Structure to design on (425 residues):
């Protein structure tokens, strides 16, 4: 991974993620990208790269892929090498780089390298590590990441150094990815490469079947308005629309900037619904409908492997008429775009469909738990148990009394929407 190092730059800003004890005037930041990937490489990591550069995602890095990479490099002002080198990894959208760097890849087109990461490192390889150890994937290796690495090392019965080297990568199941690519060991490894290529080809075929289905479903959306009368979905879309023009920032949840899942979370929070923070988790935030039935406010998802929702890396809000509203990637702003189909899953998730209004004492379930979370955001301190009992009823009455809406514990649409959290727009 040292080939991906862009040089030493004095670290003067810790971005709130590094303690003062860990940062000194003498400390420097290095950029740890992932292994150089070029012709002769095969596997899911190659397929992810191919989808980014709009090449046939067959998982086999050949001359056509090299040409597509070179074309992408030219568009993004990166030296046209035709290989995914350090500069190219850095220029990629962060979510795509993280996905590809953490996927398996084999063959003689991958440079043998394995990063040793510690406090001060940053870049895609760090983000891959952070995702695996369960911390915020901001790409900066600070004390929180070091603590999580130590915990993973202890669990794997390794020396808890807080530094990630080959043994730690292996314990995390990331050996054989661009994050940690060992040198070929034997002819048996070459046979494994061939098997991996065959497996990648089969996987690519499965991906193509789903993609063809998605293309047909998406085509139907362009001829349908996709309107909704659901007031909660409309409130979420109103908030999201007001964020147009604000910049993308990895980890951003507003109000100044957003990443994709941060925009979705904030939009539904403004409408009183609490959603998970991460895009892959938001996939489970409501019932699913076929893509061609999508309505305004529904969530659409993009994955690096269409057969595995766990590989979701991007989420958008459906805006109707074949358009989406999202926070796309670094260097771009929140805005409305024409729906694209590369990596798109064939379903839409409808968070607002789970909400049942009005709510009254004696009710129970998901809607009540959402009400309790909304009340707590306004200082109620009720138990989030999904049961509309006396404690919840008292909190509702207090809230309504403060808004001069009477003393009833019943929660209708108007009261619900007033519980939304809407930060400065």
């Amino acid at each position: 991974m040292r080939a991906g190092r862009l040089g030493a730059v004095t670290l003067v800003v810790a971005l709130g993620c590094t303690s003062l004890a860990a940062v000194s005037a003498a400390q420097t930041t290095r950029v740890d990208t992932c292994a150089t990937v070029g012709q002769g490489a095969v596997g899911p990591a190659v397929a992810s790269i191919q989808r980014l550069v709009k090449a046939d995602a067959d998982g086999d890095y050949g001359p056509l892929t090299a040409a597509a990479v070179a074309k992408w490099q030219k568009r993004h002002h990166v030296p046209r090498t035709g290989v995914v080198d350090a500069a190219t990894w850095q220029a990629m959208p962060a979510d795509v780089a993280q996905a590809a760097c953490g996927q398996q890849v084999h063959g003689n087109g991958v440079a043998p390298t394995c990063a040793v990461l510690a406090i001060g490192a940053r870049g895609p390889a760090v983000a891959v590590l952070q995702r695996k150890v369960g911390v915020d994937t901001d790409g900066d290796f600070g004390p929180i990441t070091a603590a999580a690495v130590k915990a993973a090392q202890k669990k794997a019965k390794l020396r808890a150094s807080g530094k990630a080297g080959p043994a730690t990568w292996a314990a995390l199941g990331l050996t054989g990815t661009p994050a940690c690519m060992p040198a070929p060991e034997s002819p048996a490894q070459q046979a494994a490469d061939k098997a991996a290529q065959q497996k990648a080809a089969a996987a690519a075929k499965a991906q193509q079947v789903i993609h063809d289905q998605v293309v047909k479903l998406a085509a139907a959306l362009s001829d349908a308005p996709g309107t909704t009368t659901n007031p909660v979905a409309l409130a979420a879309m109103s908030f999201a629309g007001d964020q147009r023009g604000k910049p993308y920032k990895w980890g951003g949840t507003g109000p100044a900037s957003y990443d994709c899942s941060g925009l979705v979370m904030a939009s539904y929070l403004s409408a009183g619904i609490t959603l998970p923070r991460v895009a892959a988790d938001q996939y489970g935030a409501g019932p699913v409908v076929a893509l061609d039935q999508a309505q305004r406010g529904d969530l659409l998802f993009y994955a690096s492997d269409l057969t595995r929702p766990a590989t979701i890396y991007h989420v958008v809000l459906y805006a109707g008429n074949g358009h989406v509203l999202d926070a796309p990637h670094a260097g771009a702003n929140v805005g409305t775009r024409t729906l694209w189909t590369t990596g798109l899953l064939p379903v839409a998730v409808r968070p607002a469909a789970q909400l049942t209004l009005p709510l009254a004492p004696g009710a129970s379930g998901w809607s009540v738990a959402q009400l309790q979370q909304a009340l707590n955001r306004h200082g109620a301190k009720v138990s989030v148990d999904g049961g509309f009992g006396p404690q919840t009823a008292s909190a509702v009455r207090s809230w309504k009394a403060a808004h001069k809406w009477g003393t009833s514990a019943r929660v209708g649409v108007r009261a619900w929407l007033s519980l939304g959290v809407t930060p400065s727009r």
User: Anything to note?
Assistant: Residues 187-221 form the longest helix (35 residues).
